[in-house]
Design brief:
Rossmann fold, 17 strands, Alpha-Beta Plaits
């Protein structure tokens, strides 16, 4: 007891002190603890002797002192802490770390003691402090003027003290010679968590939130894994924030990105929990002991910054007690037993429920409103915004950066710039645009965490800790910084694979990766998958591997920087040519009936390969690629795109002077002519047809010459020179027969049959087509189109023979749909519509006409020679149904997909062949009235038709 016997009354400042970790210190020092404790008491009492403090009692390592003046109390604390810090203790570990707490309130002494709640409040404040720290209440801060020279009070905010219902504002004494960085005060907050407060709204991810919440409730360790910028942290915080009431001992957020050394991970977690290092004891043991009896959720963010150290600490926490759960975010899994690895998907780009916007669009719209000062996007921008989110693969960070670009760009301008994803998103953001206006509380705690851990280990000064935090924060300022964060952790083989995979535009399988590297890629591929640099998509035939577009753009830049672009892209072109070749061959390497469906998934790769051949590679290989897609361009309504690629390749040839064989030029010009005709550019069609003929003659290849000459009729027909076109067809057919290349003149046979149909020479057309059937059946690249059956069906329609028309057209439509010839399928659906019109089903006819026209319009392709005929038949049908009924049925058909329209057409009942039925329609069609006197052709049976294709020589 102090010699001072007078106890202050009225406004009294109470001070409590004790040694933090005194039990541990006593165990460590043994018999050496008593001298340390005594010296600690001596220093405090000598300080108090010079102040106005009255010592009420001393118990163990604790002091309870009363002051009549708050300023004197703060001055005494400052002097005492400086004396303790400057004293020479037996060893640095033996230095006692004393915590002090002050509170000022009205109190009256009674019988040498105080019976007041203010005393208990002061005790709780002291209990909230850490060793070396001085905390005081708001009341003490108000009455403590003047402060000691150089001293100030740091506002730590409102805190709930144990046993008190209200919240107390706490201040920390800051002065030279005093430690400044401490964990958060040890208080009993009503909502025990330190989750970061978000300044923007959380958009979408309803399904993901529910799924992740379920996993966290069912498993003790869940790791949210995904690429940088995928929204892992934001989703994890959102899920954790909804579960605060579930964990009575709190939810604690720790950002490992701020940790500069593996040994500091346990310190970072402990500091957030309010724990300080205990002398002579590993921090991990202190952490495990504290958590063992508590029910809490620890959210470890960015574990990939220190994966091994995080895994070790998490393992010890989980085995040390059953009440602790860990929700981690990382770009790679931790590899711990019992770990549930949940890969965060990109934001959905599919329409939401009831036709609402997708999650990706909703996020872009929300952030665009902020970027544009509260102005919403106009409905006219909807299509371009859809293009933006699709191009960004639903990556949240990329979408946020895109919204920022919409401050200065329209949606269409931004969509047009996304071929250079990084350039468009990162423009003007190489450095943060402006510093944050203030440091959030949780960030400040992370600063304290690193500083405390560094002081404990002696490895990282304060400046380095600040730099680490800035680096961790800025890794999401640009897409390039985000991906670099992961790229720098890759080994040489994985980094090279990432760079080389950038040449692919779509998912690839394992065999493709092996082709690319000419090496076993399993090890580096696994590394990239584990680090979320690629997305693994399992399916029945085997996993495929996909790279998000922003990551691909980054990898492509690295590919150029490494000087590997030429080799990697040439290798990709070689793979593309090989893939095209395989599409034309069967398992036995023999040609098979051409189907265009295998070419559909190759389209993006072919475009990427063509882009390289037109800018930095071989134009000759580019022509080979374009040739492999010859029919695909036109059947997908992409004839114009095919022409543009050819023009670019011609320019590349002129630029490099690359030698192209005449035969290959002739094939390219011929293909160009067909594209131009399909695109309605008839003058260009004729010009390239003439170029093809000239090059073919110089090549000296009879088959090639026949194929090119067979195409000469098409531009003549398109320009209305029908007689000249017929003469050319007959000459080509005769010339091909003389040179034993009749099969190569098949296109001339089709053109001549169309011309004969047009001028009502139906018998000659039927005879010509009958002779062409085995030739067509013998040619794999042409037989799937079933042009013979289509034209025989048209001849039968002109004769009014619905049975023959039905048989031929159904065979043609089935084959065309089965093999992906969509443009030609539209012609066949139109023909079946005519068959329905003359078979007594005008409504179905109108629906089919509407469906075929809708598909044609979507493909932006012309109707060809039969266009006028379809219009004529539709006009007659309108007269039968009336305008309203025709338009309703036509509009209903326009809503059908091509597949649905084909199903409707193939479901049309076969004409009645029962006894007494009339084979021909009861009404003579307009075409038949102009072609009277002709006899009907005989329809071959389905078995006879199939025989021609199964046995081409029969």
């Amino acid at each position: 007891m102090s010699v001072r016997i007078h106890l202050p009354s009225g406004l009294v400042t109470f001070m409590f002190t004790d040694i933090e970790g005194s039990t541990r210190l006593a165990q460590m020092l043994g018999s050496g603890y008593r001298p340390v404790l005594s010296e600690h008491r001596r220093l405090l009492r000598s300080t108090l002797a010079a102040s106005d403090g009255t010592e009420l009692f001393t118990e163990g390592d604790s002091f309870f002192i009363a002051f009549a003046d708050a300023a004197a109390a703060l001055d005494a604390c400052l002097t005492a802490q400086r004396a303790l810090a400057s004293h020479e203790w037996p060893t640095p570990e033996a230095a006692p770390r004393v915590r002090m707490g002050l509170h000022t309130g009205h109190a009256e002494p009674l019988a040498g003691e105080y019976a007041s709640a203010e005393v208990h409040r002061a005790a709780r404040i002291a209990a909230a402090a850490h060793g070396g720290q001085v905390l005081c209440s708001g009341a003490t801060a108000r009455h403590a003027a003047p402060l000691p020279p150089g001293a100030s009070l740091l506002d730590l905010g409102l805190h709930r003290l144990r046993g008190f219902d209200d919240r107390e504002r706490l201040f920390q004494l800051v002065a030279p010679g005093l430690e400044r960085q401490f964990p958060r005060p040890r208080t009993a907050d009503a909502v025990p968590h330190n989750l970061p407060t978000q300044v923007t709204s959380f958009v979408g991810r309803k399904v993901e939130r529910a799924e992740l919440d379920r996993l966290v409730n069912e498993h003790r360790l869940v790791t949210v894994v995904g690429a940088g910028g995928a929204g892992k942290t934001r989703l994890a915080v959102e899920v954790a924030g909804a579960d605060v009431e579930t964990y009575p001992d709190g939810i604690w957020f720790v950002d490992i990105a701020a940790v500069t050394d593996p040994g500091l991970v346990a310190f970072a977690i402990a500091a957030v929990l309010g724990l300080r290092p205990e002398p002579g004891r590993p921090m991990a043991e202190t952490l495990v002991e504290y958590a063992a009896s508590r029910r809490m959720l620890i959210l470890l963010d960015t574990c990939d910054a220190q994966p091994a150290a995080c895994a070790e600490v998490i393992a010890r926490l989980l085995t040390g007690g059953s009440g602790v759960r860990v929700l981690a975010t990382s770009r790679e899994s931790l590899g711990l037993p019992g770990e549930v690895v949940w890969r965060i998907p990109p934001l959905s780009v599919d329409p939401g429920p009831n036709g609402g916007p997708s999650d990706a669009i909703a996020l872009l719209l929300d952030r665009t409103v902020a970027a544009r000062g509260g102005r919403r996007s106009s409905p006219a921008e909807a299509a371009d915004l859809e293009r933006v989110v699709a191009r960004l693969d639903g990556l949240p960070l990329a979408i946020e950066l895109a919204a920022a670009r919409l401050r200065v760009l329209s949606a269409s301008q931004l969509a047009g710039r996304l071929d250079d994803v990084l350039g468009a998103l990162d423009a003007g953001r190489d450095e943060p645009e402006q510093p944050a206006p203030s440091t959030p509380r949780w960030i400040a705690n992370q600063h304290d965490t690193v500083d405390l851990a560094a002081a404990a280990l002696g490895v990282a000064p304060v400046a380095a800790a600040r730099a680490a935090q800035r680096s961790a924060t800025q890794r999401h300022v640009t897409m390039q910084a985000t991906v670099t964060w992961s790229y720098r952790t890759l080994g040489p083989r994985a980094a090279r694979l990432l760079r080389w995979l950038a040449v692919f535009s779509s998912p690839v399988d394992l065999a493709t990766v092996e082709w690319l590297l000419d090496d076993d890629p399993l090890d580096p591929l696994s590394v990239l998958a584990d680090k979320s640099m690629i997305q693994v998509e399992p399916n029945i035939s085997g996993s495929t591997y996909r790279m998000l577009d922003p990551i691909r753009a980054y990898a492509a830049r690295r590919l150029v920087d490494a000087g590997e672009e030429q080799s990697a892209r040439d290798r990709h072109v070689a793979w593309s040519l090989h893939a095209l070749e395989r599409a034309y061959l069967g398992p036995d390497d023999r040609p098979v009936t051409l189907s265009l469906y295998p070419l559909d998934p190759l389209a993006d790769e072919m475009r990427a390969a063509l882009r390289w051949t037109a800018t930095g590679g071989s134009a000759r290989q580019g022509l080979q690629l374009a040739s492999g897609l010859d029919q695909w361009w036109r059947e997908r309504g992409l004839a114009r795109e095919g022409r543009l690629w050819l023009f670019r390749l011609y320019g590349r040839i002129a630029e490099t002077g690359e030698r192209i064989p005449e035969a290959e030029l002739a094939a390219a010009y011929h293909m160009h002519s067909l594209h131009a005709g399909a695109d309605g550019e008839f003058a260009e069609e004729l010009r390239f047809s003439q170029r093809a003929e000239s090059a073919a003659r110089q090549a000296g290849d009879a088959g090639l010459q026949a194929r090119v000459l067979a195409g000469r009729a098409a531009p003549l027909i398109d320009m209305g020179q029908l007689a000249e076109a017929e003469r050319v067809c007959r000459e080509v057919i005769a010339w091909a027969h003389q040179n034993d290349v009749s099969g190569d003149a098949l296109f001339a046979v089709y053109s001549l049959a169309e011309l004969l149909w047009r001028r009502c020479a139906l018998d000659e057309a039927a005879e010509l087509l009958g002779a062409a059937r085995p030739v067509e059946a013998a040619r794999p690249v042409e037989r799937a189109r079933r042009s013979v059956d289509m034209l025989l069906g048209m001849v039968a329609l002109s004769r009014g023979d619905l049975v023959a028309a039905h048989d031929h057209l159904v065979v043609a439509l089935r084959s065309r749909m089965a093999h992906g010839f969509h443009g030609r399928a539209c012609d066949t659906i139109n023909a079946i519509a005519v068959r329905c019109a003359w078979g007594g089903d005008p409504v179905t006819a109108a629906r089919l006409f509407g469906a075929a026209q809708a598909t044609r319009s979507a493909m932006r392709s012309t109707a060809g020679m039969f266009g006028p005929y379809w219009l004529e038949e539709q006009a007659g049908l309108r007269g039968v149904l009336g305008d309203a009924a025709f338009d309703a049925a036509y509009a209903e058909g326009a809503e059908l997909t091509l597949e649905e329209a084909a199903a409707v057409a193939l479901a049309v009942d076969h004409p009645d062949l029962a006894a007494g039925s009339i084979r021909f329609s009861g009404v003579e069609p307009p075409a038949q009235r102009s072609r009277s006197g002709r006899e009907s052709i005989h329809a071959e049976s389905p078995r006879e038709i199939l025989d021609h294709y199964e046995h081409p020589g029969s």
